[in-house]
From TrEMBL:
GO terms for biological process: iron-sulfur cluster assembly. Homodimer. Keywords: ATP-binding, Hydrolase, Iron, Iron-sulfur, Metal-binding, Nucleotide-binding. Transmembrane segments: none annotated. Pfam families: ParA. InterPro entries: Mrp/NBP35_ATP-bd, P-loop_NTPase, YlxH/NBP35. One of its GO terms (molecular function) is ATP-dependent FeS chaperone activity. This is Iron-sulfur cluster carrier protein.
Amino acid sequence: MKKEEEAMAQEKRLKERMGKIKHKIMVMSGKGGVGKTTVAVNLALTLAAKGYEVGIMDADIHGPNVPKMLGIEDERPDVSEEGITPVFVPPRVKVMSLAFLLESKDTPVVWRGPLKMGVIKQFLTDVIWGDLDCLIADLPPGTGDEPLSVAQLVPGIDGAIVVTTPQDVALLDSRKSVTFAKKLGMPVIGIIENMSGFKCPKCGETIDLFKIGGGERAAMDMGVPFLGRIPIEVNIVLSGDSGIPFVLEHESEAAKSFKTIVDNIEYIMKGE
């Protein structure tokens, strides 16, 4: 009986926490190495710069890199009887990640499915997110435990944003992510094509390192919106390593792309 009461209390707390959040979005990818976390972090900061209150839930249990990209690796969330207070990043971003709770940066997470689902549930029920305009869940690659847990646990989830690169091998997996969302009855907000062309800083010529346009074609084939493409820029890599989000430091084609993508997400979310 006690377990049933605890489960009911947890479910009530989950609904209360999520009820204060207007929009819940999953950022996912079919495969690793496509820049999904970079996209998630910079989307969050772009939304915050427009005046939105944003939360980032780092649900990549085995590779929680959000704190590194925000320069907050050494921060720790406050824990009280009321719950866990996420780490705050100016101007309006709250962050929760398993990275904050590990003994060191080199500590691996060697967990099976049930443990991973448990910590994701704790992030949703015990973290004091407060009133948010948007909660972004940064997920690990693929369609395994973590994406399934978030999709099933979050009430009223708005949908998934799928990040891909233009080459065929990435597109194959991104299409699986779209199918995954559709099978769960979850809307696909759209596809973002990352690493889409590289403009030489010396001669100005654009080089299609990983091809270009594949994400847009995949979106068209799958019948989902195409949110935009982000070019490769050296400063994106440097910003990720330095812990200063790219969109806060640079006014370039990539930064403009993030702003256009956020405009498209706003347009879709408002149902216009």
